[in-house]
Structures
1.
Amino acid sequence: MESALDQKEIVIVGGGIIGCTSAYFLTRHPAYDPSKHKITLLEASKIAGGASGKAGGLLALWAYPTNIVPLSYRLHAQLAKEHGGESRWGYRQIHCGQLAAKGRPNETKQTLNGKPSNGESVSLNKRDGKALGKVIAAGLPKDLNWFAPESVQSYYQMGDPNTTAQVHPYQFTTAMAELAAQKGVKIILGSVTSIDTANGSGVKSVTYEDKATKASCTIPATDVIVSAGPWTQRVYPPAPISGMRAHSVTITPSKPISAYAIFTEIALPPDFGQKNTFLKSKRPHSKTVTPEIYARPNNEAYACGEGDHLVPLPKTTEDVETDLDRCQDIIDYVSSISDELRDGEVTVRQACYLPNVEAASGGPLIGQTGVKGLLLATGHTCWGIQNGPGTGKLISEFVFDGKAKSASIGSLDPRKVL
């Protein structure tokens, strides 16, 4: 007969990609027994409410850190095969490259519903033989035909379908949560107020405020995984984690675009920006900007800009402020080099916070904290979606095997920075 000491009460704090993949892989570990082990996932607002629902979803073997990237990239492919990820969360292999381009002055004005304000847009950038010759000379692949030829300066391939893929982050994260729940994980919406420890014997419980009732509740815990992204320090103050705000938009292009993820470097013309409209930027533009553009299935493009620290981290993901001017900047930048994006419909303007590790060693932080039963899985910066499955797999090993077995992650040990 199993003793009470063998029965685990596992509590995961945070319903983003790391918390949800941890829940998923804990339920797939050979030692997991739903009749004996209990897993609870606590999320303050909603599953994938933060960066895990608003990220780009790029997967790459050339990402970092190199000690977990190959594991996680491989697990992404396995998960997609096992659970129909191609249709369920948009998994597909893609091309990726770096594009240097000259931005053009804005030729149409975007209204807040994302459509051209004059109701009509006519491209003057015909792809004739001369234009195509310029594109070919710049090294642009033939099927990457959604950038204005006169804008393209050079192209460098960063990855191909053997090394690069993508998912829709919100769909992937919520699918992981659903698959974990099917195996017995209980998901509770509530904000953690304390992780309670017994003198010298590790964690004993977690206290949270229920989102709906506002009641304070305490649940027993033998193992606690803190995977609260930029909110980690609010839950576990010693963690050296900060948050950086990032804006993004999604656009339905005027014509279907090929499957590429593009890192741009755009040289803007003087006095770039919309003139005499209420959408005019309140900030001067840099001479060179670097938005990223990811083509997604179902004729959607995702574009994101640079981060900022102008607004402190709010209480929850539901309280994140979106700066519409910063979103408009992204729209203007990508419109300056692509007719398909300029003439498309903007469908989403959004912001989120990315978790950064404030330590010379960088991150993420995955593993034991020095407090028995308390684990950290956080600080994944912009590669949270890419490294989510690998992190979840490793966390399941820490809980049930006492150590990481699938990858050598000594450099990511949280105890080195706590």
2.
Amino acid sequence: MPTAIDNASLPSRSKLVNIEKSHNLDKLPRLVPRKKAPPQQNPLPVPPTPSLPSPVDPQSLHFHKPTRRILSRHDYEIFEASPTYILILSFVFSLSQAAADKKISSTYQDEASDGIEKVLSVLSAVEEIVTRCPPVDQGGSRFGNPSFRDFLDTIAVESSLWHSLLNVQSNSAVVEVSTYLHNSFGNRARIDYGSGHELNFMMWLLCLNRLSILPQSTFPRLSLQVFPRYIRLMRRIQSTYYLEPAGSHGVWGLDDYHFLPFLFGASQLLHHPYIRPLSIHNELVLQEEGDEYIYLDMVRETMASKSVKGLKWTQPMLDDISGAKNWEKVEQGMRRMFVKEVLGKLPVMQHFLFGSLVPAAEGMSREEELGVNPEEKEPEGGEMVVAQDGVKHVHRSDAWGDCCGIKIPSTVAATQEAKKKGEEDSFRRIPFD
């Protein structure tokens, strides 16, 4: 039995706790590994490639001049649920898949196609018209050159012969198909160009596919020969007539005018052994591989046309995309962007044209029913009545407006004017860059 003295020599409970705490202070805290955050999931699924329907029998169609049918939000909702929406997705994504893992030069050995050669000859004829319709002197102005209207008028006169050489049979079919070609080079009233006009070129090719002039076996050459030829032609047209970007927002920081080259170009690079998304910052890669890969060519051209050096300043989205892990991620993102930012935007699709080969769905509005003039008959400046979110309003494309943006000069025009002054080699660098 312990005595009082023994109890006095024992430390109290509070002292024991304090001693234990002092010993714990000398120990390093136990490190708990941080849990890895789950990868962020994109809420938008990757759009698949629907199967492409068989070509139609021309005898079953009533050809007519294509017109606008998306004149309200309700019209767009009908279109979005229609077979034509699926047809457009199928054609564009099939062209993109046809370019997968192929160099441009690899298609030169493909089987000869009379349709492809004739389409290329049409683009050459269009470029010859650029030479015949030189721009007028605007005294240094960087806005659209009015000679562009003469250029488009000449195309309208000569395109009937081109389409008869393409074996488009009837006059009514020529009128329908050629309307898409006329609208592939920009807007006559506004002297601008954007992704909607690029989409018209795709619809021209789609019409030729529906008429069995460009079968699915020609798709690799369409993607990697015809489409790059169209892009080169558009660069000349843009730099000659100072076409303004359609809308004030650019094409989401990818390019001032184009979108589809980035989709087709990402597909080309899907499984490339050494070119990575980050390689777009390597000027040597751009110079040595740009002639073979559309994506690299677009970046190279974009960098050459800007007066400020650095993609992060001029094309911030391209700069962000370069951080992607692989080209598969880039290609999937481009598919999502095409659905959301091209087919999904009313300001773009309100100008889309419907005929018999690219038909409107039942219940969509007609221009004559609403008293809307055809787009080519709108007054200069582009004043028109549009319906956005169900509200009709008068909008001028040369004034402020969220629907189609504001009228702005192109960087191509700035570059061309700088060349005239002998300043083409000077870059304006951002301070501290």
